[in-house]
Write a structure and sequence with these properties.
InterPro entries: Bact_solute-bd_prot1, SBP. The chain is α/β, with parallel strands linked by helices. It folds into 2 domains: about 5-175 and about 335-375, D-Maltodextrin-Binding Protein, domain 2; about 175-335 and about 380-450, D-Maltodextrin-Binding Protein, domain 2 (3-Layer(aba) Sandwich). The chain is about 45% helix and about 10% strand. The strands form 3 sheets. It has a 5-stranded mixed sheet. Strand 1, helix 3 (about 65-80) and strand 2 form a beta-alpha-beta unit. Helix 3 crosses helix 14, helix 9 (about 225-235) packs across helix 11 and helix 17 packs antiparallel against helix 18 (about 430-445). It is globular. The chain starts with 14 loop residues before the first helix and ends with a helix.
Length: about 450
C-alpha cells in the first residue's frame, strides 16, 4: 500500500537505521544468523521478544489512529481475561518492518504477533518461506471467517508459492480501507463550486478552481499520492476479471491496452492541467496531508486511515466522497496480523487476534472512522463517520473493491513510485511508463514461476 498509503506508512527508517540494517545484513551473509536479528531489532527500536509473562505485538499503525486505538482496546480486553500476562505493543514505521521482515523473523527473538504488509510480494513471500504460521485451523475454530468474509479474505490467503487469492490463511485483516476524496467545504462554498456528485461535476470543479488560480488537489509523488490516483484511474474502468488477473497473476495483463494505458494518459492530463500542482517529486504523504489540513487545497485524494487524523486536526468543515462514476474503487482490507512461525506464545497470540476482531475493539475502530470489518452503525454517533462507514459497507456489499496496485510482485511499490515521479517531472512519457511496467511485472511473474 500500499497500504498502502497513509500517515502510518511514512518513511521512518532513517539513514542511521538503514546503515545499521545493511551492516547487519552483511554480517548475516558472512557469519550466519548468530544474534544478528537481535542487533537489527535494536537498531529499529523493536527490542527483544517477550518472556513467559509478556505477549509481544509489533505493529506500524500510527499512534492515535483508529486502528491503533482498536489495538489498545484489544489489549485491555486481553489483559483482563489473561491475569498475569502483559501485552507489549511496539510501534515502528511501515517500511522499517516491511523492508526487514525476513531478517526480523529468522532469529530467536521474534514477536508473538506481527503486523505485515498484505499481498504476494510481501506477506505471500514470508508465508512461502515458512516464516509465518498457518492460521487456517484457527480461522475455522475461532470463527474469524465470520468476520472476514467474501473478497475480504483474498489477501489473507496464499498458495504454496506465496500467491494471494487462494490457499491457506497466513494473516488476518482487522479493518478496511478505501480510497476517497476529502474536501474542504469552506473552500468549495467560498469559491461557489458545487460538491462533485458524478464525473462531469468533478471535472467541472477541477476546472473552476484552476481558473481561479487555485490548485484543486493536494498530492505528492514522493510517496503514495500519485500512485493511489493512477490506480484509481485504472480500476474506474476495469472489471473484476482484469483486476483479479493482475493481482493474483492469472492470465495475461497487457499494460499497453485499456484500462491500463488510459490511466497513465489521464494522469498526465491532470498534471498538465494543473490539477495537482507542480514539483510533486519531493513531496511526501505527510506534507500532502499537512497542506490539506492547513486549508491550502479544496481536495485531497487519499486512503481512508487518514480519516481520523483529518477529524482530529481540521479546523474547517469537511466531508468525503468516493471517486465518482467509478466501476470499482481502490481499497479492501487493512494490513494483516500474523503469527511468526517461531513465536513463543502462539495460543495467546490467537487469543489476541480474536480480541482485535471482537466487538469492543471493532466498535472502537468504527467510532473513529476506521472502517471495521464487524460494523455496528448503532455505536457510531458522529454523522460524518456514519456516512463514511456506510460508504465502505455499500462498496463491500457489491464487491466493488479493487485492492491496491503494489501487491503482485516483489519490488513493485518502489518501481511504481519511481516511475510516477518520472511521469510527474515529464522525464517519463505515459507510453514509456506502460512499457516499463509491462517489463517489470512480467519479470516479477517469471521469478515466481508464473
Amino acid at each position: 500500500m500500499f497500504t498502502r498509503r497513509t500517515a502510518s506508512r511514512r518513511r521512518t527508517l532513517r539513514h542511521g537505521a538503514l546503515a545499521t540494517a545493511l551492516t547487519a545484513l552483511a554480517a548475516l551473509t558472512l557469519g550466519g544468523c548468530g544474534g544478528v536479528g537481535s542487533d537489527l531489532r535494536g537498531s529499529l527500536g523493536l527490542g527483544r521478544g517477550g518472556d513467559d509473562h509478556t505477549l509481544t505485538v509489533w505493529q506500524f499503525e500510527t499512534k492515535g489512529s483508529a486502528a491503533y486505538d482498536g489495538f489498545r482496546t484489544a489489549v485491555r480486553v486481553f489483559e483482563r481475561d489473561h491475569p498475569g500476562i502483559r501485552v507489549e505493543v511496539v510501534t515502528q514505521g511501515f517500511d522499517s518492518i516491511r523492508r526487514n521482515a525476513k531478517m526480523l523473523l529468522t532469529g530467536d527473538d521474534v514477536p508473538d504477533v506481527m503486523e505485515i504488509n498484505k499481498g504476494s510480494s510481501d506477506g505471500g513471500q514470508l508465508a512461502a518461506q515458512g516464516l509465518l504460521t498457518d492460521l487456517t485451523p484457527q480461522v475455522r475454530a475461532r470463527g474469524w471467517d465470520d468476520v472476514v468474509t467474501g473478497s475480504m479474505q483474498n489477501l489473507a490467503r496464499y498458495d504454496k508459492d506465496g500467491i494471494a487469492g487462494s490457499g491457506r490463511w497466513f494473516g488476518v485483516p482487522t479493518s478496511g480501507q478505501q480510497f476517497t476524496f476529502f474536501y474542504n467545504k469552506d473552500l468549495f462554498a467560498k469559491a461557489g463550486v458545487p460538491v462533485p456528485r458524478d464525473t462531469a461535476s468533478l471535472m467541472s470543479a477541477l476546472r473552476a478552481f484552476t481558473a481561479k488560480g487555485q490548485v484543486p488537489i493536494s498530492s505528492n509523488a514522493g510517496e503514495f499520492g500519485l500512485l493511489q490516483l493512477w490506480y484509481q484511474f485504472v480500476v474506474a474502468h476495469a472489471d473484476r476479471a482484469q483486476v483479479d488477473n493482475y493481482l493474483f497473476l492469472r492470465g495475461r495483463t497487457d499494460f499497453t491496452k485499456p484500462p491500463w494505458s488510459t490511466a497513465g494518459r489521464e494522469l498526465v492530463r491532470w498534471l498538465r492541467a494543473g490539477y495537482l500542482g507542480t514539483k510533486l517529486g519531493g513531496l511526501t504523504q505527510n506534507q500532502m496531508e499537512t497542506a490539506f489540513l492547513a486549508g491550502k487545497y479544496p481536495l485531497m485524494a487519499d486512503n481512508s486511515p487518514v480519516f481520523s487524523t483529518v477529524g482530529q486536526s481540521a479546523d474547517f468543515d469537511w466531508g468525503t466522497f468516493a471517486f465518482p462514476g467509478a466501476q470499482l474503487t481502490e481499497g479492501l482490507t487493512g494490513q494483516l496480523l500474523s503469527v511468526p512461525a517461531r513465536a513463543r506464545h502462539k495460543d495467546l497470540a490467537y487469543d489476541f487476534i480474536t480480541d482485535v476482531l471482537a466487538k469492543p475493539a471493532q466498535d472502537t475502530v468504527g467510532r473513529e472512522g476506521g472502517l471495521p470489518l464487524r460494523s455496528d452503525p448503532a455505536v457510531i454517533t458522529d454523522p460524518r463517520t456514519r456516512r463514511f462507514t456506510a460508504q465502505f459497507d455499500a462498496l463491500k456489499k457489491r464487491d466493488a473493491f479493487a485492492y491496491f496496485p503494489d501487491y503482485p510482485v516483489t519490488g513493485l511499490l518502489e518501481f511504481l513510485e519511481s516511475e510516477l515521479q518520472g511521469l510527474a517531472s515529464g522525464n517519463v512519457s505515459a507510453s514509456r511508463f506502460d512499457h516499463d511496467l509491462q517489463a517489470f511485472y512480467d519479470d516479477g511473474r517469471a521469478r515466481l514461476g508464473r
